[in-house]
Amino acid sequence: MTWLIADDEGVTLRLHIQPGAKRTEVVGLHGEALKIRLAAPPVDGKANACLIAFLANRLGVAKAAISLLTGDTSRAKRVRIGGVASALVRKAFLPLD
């Protein structure tokens, strides 16, 4: 399994999240997941909200197109993004991949 799974309606991402970082950024791969550092703390859903806003901004999609499938309170998350192609996601997060 890889960090990016595509189908006809969008993509599903496997993510490893590090909340409470100095800035929000993509770090690279962490095993079979894409590692993202978040500036938000892991309390009251702030990290999840920051993650969704970051993904939406980076991919140019509405926040409503992004849903958290698993990992609401975990560092390991699966996120569904509707209406985007896998090539766009790869270019946005791992341009050298």
Short characterization:
By secondary structure, the chain is an alpha+beta fold. The chain has one domain: Conserved Hypothetical Protein Mth637, Chain: A, CATH 3.30.1200.10.
How does this model look, in words?
By secondary structure, the protein is an alpha+beta fold. The protein has one domain (4-92): Conserved Hypothetical Protein Mth637, Chain: A. It has two helices and six strands. Strands 1, 2, 3, 4, 5 and 6 form a six-stranded mixed β-sheet that branches. The radius of gyration is 12 Å and the shape is globular.
Mean pLDDT: 94
Fraction of residues in helix: 10-25%
Termini gap: 16 Å
- Strand residues, percent: 35-45%
Kindly identify the CATH topology.
Answer: Conserved Hypothetical Protein Mth637, Chain: A
Catalogue the unreliable spans.
Answer: none
Taken from the alpha-carbon principal axes, the silhouette is globular
Give the quaternary arrangement of the chains.
single chain
Largest sheet: 6 strands, mixed
Radius of gyration: 12 Å
Tally of individual domains: 1
Structural class: alpha+beta
Gross CATH architecture: 2-Layer Sandwich
Order of helices and strands: EEEEHEEH
What tags apply to this protein structure?
globular, six-stranded mixed β-sheet
Lay out the secondary structure.
Elements: E1 4-7, E2 10-18, E3 25-30, E4 33-37, H1 46-59, E5 66-70, E6 76-82, H2 86-93
Parallel strand pairs: 2-4
Antiparallel strand pairs: 1-2, 2-6, 3-4, 5-6
